[in-house]
Each structure stands twice: as structure tokens, then as C-alpha cells.
Amino acid sequence: MKRRSFIKNSTLASAGTISMPYILPSGIMGMTTTPPLSEYVVFVLFAGGVRQQEAVLQRYLAEGQNENVEGNIMYNMLAGAPPDDKIAYGQDDTVNNIIGGIPIDPILQTPLDQIGTLFPEVRFSKGGAGHFSGLSTGVSGNYSTTQGLKSRPAAPTIFEYLRRHAGFKATDCWFVGVGITGSRPLLNYSANEAYGRMYGGNFIAPTVTFGSPGMQHFMNFKNYHPDTEWNKILEMREFLNQNFRNEGLEISHLYNDLEEEDSIKEFVKKTFEKVNSGSLTLPPVNDNGDLKTIGYAVELLNWFKPKLTVVDMSNIDVCHGNYTAYLKNLHRGDHGVGFLWREIQRIPEMAGKTTLIVMPEHGRDLEPNPIMDDNDWFAYDHSGNNENTRRIFSLMAGPNIDAGLRVGGVNNPIGDASDIVPTIAELFGIKDTVINKGLLDPSSRSLFDRI
Amino acid sequence: MNMQTSGRTTIKLFGLILMILFAACEKEYYVYDINDVDITPLNSYKDKPKTHSQYISILYANMFQTAIGPNQMLQALKAIESIGDKQVAYDILVSKYMNDPNVKLPSNESMRSDPEGFIRDTYKRFLVRQPTEAELQWMINYIESRPSLTTELVYFSFATSNEHAHY
Fold it and tell me: What is the pLDDT confidence band of residue B43, given thresholds at 50, 70 and 90?
């Protein structure tokens, strides 16, 4: 779809909302609902603090290490030729003893920025550029400028908006965390009193659930027969719970109905079987936690077909102490996103109906710290008040999204880290409802409105 | 004249005595009252959620009759935190423990032979209180009307109940 026709269609759709409210597939209708633009959304929070220089600017070592080698090491997401010298971002070349010397083959024939729309210069405009702050902004559309770790986002998350205003079920909404550190398990619902746990999304950190902790305490859990055993447990538990009805005092469940609870348990059981039989759908290269998490996310997409899945990656953060490892993990992050897009197209229900959004949670410093790696390359932190940490990008591809469009540039930043929530809300037809709640950051706008 | 005065004085005095006598015979009213008492369920004092660590350590002790080791505790804690819906996470954890050959469960025969004793012990073990008469009767009826009910299923329901997750 060309830009002009897209704008025309968008305008017509917007006009339609004034005169004809749309009934969402969930049956919810309101004056602020519009036709959904996509049936499914997968949002990748990429991937632990990315410098623009090595990402969309494709400068490789030219700006980071003062070596005259440029090139694109994210060729599943971005168009551009890879570096032709000092290759250190791929798989280790054990024959010639070169760390990272063999680049990973591209998965996608057409990079995602050619399939969709790229906002190459976006701003993380407020607060400190910390991981939790970035992840929280990504899922809530608001900056947690006064919020510390170990507390839920103050503003409602996109999961809560969708469950409350679009009628999504709990298993329609998933946060797939790369782990349980950094307060990630708190990102599936907010502390906002009007929303909260009742509207929360499901959370799973699969490398933990299916890793050593889960193998010790979850794997081979017992199956109870639904008619002769499980229903008795439920009857007795219901009786016990009826006698303990103190307000709000319940195990913090997420309002999955019984069918959904069974489905989650069955997913856990089946995934353990796949882990043990070595039949997980993993990316071709899966030598870090991010790529394993992406593989588990694909398993989850195949099982639940969630309306919204948020996946978080973090291995790039190794850049605090090892620049070469950072390059390798950036390359692998791109590999994971390419794999994710390919696998989505292999799920019949989701193929051609899914929007993929990719955005780093924040950037990284312009200047290095003193730590050098084996290649004598300097490491980079993400510090407060360093403007380079505020530079990120947004990429989206899927139905009703312009192909090959770039919006903004280095000298013309367009977009904000808080934009993804209203963008997803627009994709599911509840943008105006969400905006009218007044809980988004004032600078937040749907990416469609920024085009 | 003196006689008249003396007679009036006598009448007044007599009247005064009568008033005193009547006043002394006035009936006293007693109001018997009771203090207001709030009647609350036995478990109403449990208003704090157990932390995941507390829940796991108590659960483990109840299931295996021994304390959980620190490394096992850390791993169990991570497993629980990796799943957002804690009811689902607890269900899976308890299911896993029920599959462990070292789990300590009373025999089904002991439950059948003395259901009241079994119920009282189970309430005490998991909920740290005695059942009310209504709870006791419901549970006895439930056990006696379901021949296929096992102690494992009873323990599972207690272990994953809301009250067991609070103190």
C-alpha cells in the first residue's frame, strides 16, 4: 500500500468512527472502536540496549572503535550490505581460530524494513535509560520516571487495555520474558487501581520454566483425570475458598478461566516433552538465551495463537564489558527476529494477519567505558543524561502497513518510545478508547499518526 | 389558736413522712444488656499473603515432613516466579510433588476408617486451625459419598486453596 492510499484509507477509517461504531470481534462496541488493522501482534523489545551506530546507522566499527569498517550486521531487519572486513559478529571460526568469524546466514530474503515501515530515529524521551524503565515504557506507553525496580508499572499496560476494552482473554495476551531478573515478572499488569491483575496478561520466562528450576520443580508433574480426579479437587477447593472470602485475599491468579488454566498446564507439559526429545522449534543458531527465548515464543505462538505477544531479549547488554560479544548478540538478535517472522508465516492462523513491531527499550552511550575485550575494542554502558541512550528505532511490518517506508531520519527524529501502546491499540481498534483514558505519556502517539 | 397551729404542723409532718415513705418505695428498674461482639470466621485473622518462599517452605514441609534445602528452595522460587498465574504455578508445583515417591500421605484406609480424625488433622496441617462444625460435616459427607476420593486429592485441594496461601 502506498503512503498516499494508506493515509486516504486511514482518514476514511477515522471518519467512519464518528458515524459508525465498530463491533469488535469480542462483541464489544463503543463510539471509540474502529475496525482492527491486524488480527495478531508480536512486539519484540530488542534487546538490552542498542546503539544506533551499530544498528540502523550500520557503522559497525567505524563509530564505535575508530576503525574504518562499516556495514550492516542486522540484515534480516535492515537493508544494507554487511561489513567486508574484521568480521567478529558471527559464529566462531574454530578452524582458523577467529572469534565470531562466520556470519550467520540471513533467514529472510527481504529484510523487514522493506516489508514494513522503519522509524530510524526515535526518542526515549524521558527518565533514565534503564532496562526496566525501557521495558515498562514499551508495555505501558508511559515513562516510569519516579519508579524503582520491584514495583509494577504505574500506568496500565497494553495487556490491561486490551483485556478490558477489547474483551481479550488472559491467554490472548502474553509477555514472554527472557528471564525473571530486572522485575520482568511485574510487567504483565500495572498497579493502576482501575485496571490491575483482573486485566493482566499471562507471563512466562521459558528459559526458567523449562530450564533447571522448572526441571526440578515442574517437569513430570502429575496429570489428573479431569472427570474422576480433577473435578473433585476443584469442588473441594471451591468449598475451602468459599470459606475464605476475605476481600482480595486469593492466590494471585490472572483470571484465566478453567479451560485456559488447563491449556497452560498442557502447554508446559508438551513443551517439556519437546525439550527432552530435542524437538523444540529453535532458530538455526541458538547459542544464547535470547534465541532460546525466541524459540520458546514460537512454541507459545503455535500453541495459543495469542492476539498480543510481547517478547523481550537482553543479551546485547553484555556490551557493558565486551564489545565483541555485543556485536555477536546484536547479530543474533536480528537472527532471532528474522526467525520469528518466518515462523509466524508458518502458523496458518497467523500468517499474513500478524503485525510485528520491533523497538529497543533504550540506546547506549556515545562514548565508551575503559573496559577492553580480546579484540582491544572498548565497551559501552547506558548512562543517565547521555543523549545517545535516548536514540532508538521502531520497525513494524504486517497487514495495512506500508512496505519500504522510512519515516524520519538522523536530523529529523520522529517517534517516541511510548508510541507502541497506542499503535497496538490502533491495530486492535481501541486507540481512541485508550487515549481517552488519559494515562499515556503526553508525547505518545500511534505510529500510524506519525506517518 | 395554738391548737390550730399545732394541728397544721402535724399534718405537714405527716405529709412529709408519707412523701419520704413513697419515695423510698419507688420501684427500681434494672436494664440487663450484653456487649456487642463481632462474629468473624475462624480464619479471618489470616489477612497477609505468604511470600512465595514461605508458601514453598511450608508446602514442602507438609508434603515431605522435612524442610526444603536452600538450593531446592531457590530453584523452586525461580520456577514459581517464571509463571505469571500463580494458581497455575502452584497447581503444577503440587502436582510435581505428588508424583514424588517421597511424598508423605496418609493412607486412604485411615481416611475411610476415621474421616473426622483425618479432616481435623488435615485442617490442622494445612490451615493451622480446627474445622468449624459445618466444615467438618461437609467434608465427612464429601468423603463418605465419594468412594474413589483419595487422600492425595484432599491434600491437593488444601495445598492449593486460598487460605493455605495466607497467614
Answer: confident
B18 in a structural domain: no
* B74 pLDDT tier (thresholds 50, 70, 90): very high
B87/A contact by beta carbon, under 8 A: yes
B94 found inside a domain: yes
A386: cell is 547521555
pLDDT means per 10 residues, chain A with 451 residues, are: 46 44 56 84 95 97 94 98 96 94 97 98 92 95 80 96 97 98 95 96 98 97 93 96 79 95 97 97 97 98 98 96 97 98 98 98 96 96 92 97 97 98 98 96 97 94
What is the arithmetic mean of pLDDT over B59-82?
96
CA–CA separation, A48 and A314 (whole Å): 4
Residues 245-264 of A with CB under 8 A from B: 246, 249-254, 256, 261, 264
Characterize the bridge pairing of strands A354-359 and A202-204. Answer: unpaired
A214 interaction partners in chain B (CB closer than 8 Å):
79, 82
Residue B12: burial class (beta carbons within 10 Å; 0-12, 13-18, 19+): exposed
Angle between helices B151-159 and A231-242 (to 10 degrees): 50
What single DSSP character describes residue B164? G
CB A429 within 8 A of CB A34: yes
Nearest-angstrom CA–CA distance, B139 and B133? 10
Between vectors from CA A399 to CA A393 and to CA A404, what angle results, nearest 5°?
50
Q: How far apart are CA A394 and CA A113, in angstroms?
A: 10
Could you tell me the CA-to-CA distances from B34 to A55, B29, B39, B41 in Å, in that order? 78, 17, 14, 21
Instruction: Return d(Cα A259, Cα B13) in angstroms, integer.
Output: 95
User: Model ipTM?
Assistant: 0.91
Angstrom distance (rounded) from CA A34 to CA A1: 20
Q: How many domains does chain B have?
A: 1
Please name the helix (run of DSSP H) or strand (run of DSSP E) that holds residue B166, with its range, or none. none
b vs e for B39-74, b when ≥16 Cβ sit within 10 Å of the residue's Cβ?
Answer: eeeebeebeebbebeebbbbbbebbeeeebeeebbe
Examine residue B11 and state whether it is found in any structural domain, yes or no.
no
CB-based contacts of B108-117 (< 8 A; 24+ apart in sequence) = B108/B150, B108/B151, B110/B151, B111/B143, B111/B151, B111/B154, B112/B143, B115/B139, B115/B140, B115/B143, B115/B144, B116/B140
Q: H or E segment at A397? A: strand A391-397
Domain residues for B66? 52-165
Name the closest residue on chain A to residue B126, using Cα atoms.
A240
User: What is the rounded CA–CA span in Å between residue B98 and residue B106?
Assistant: 13
In order of their start, the domains of chain A are: 3-215+274-450 (3.40.720.10)
Q: Is residue B24 in a domain?
A: no
Q: Which residues of B touch A254 (CB under 8 A)?
A: 84-85
* pLDDT at residue B105 greater than cutoff 80: yes
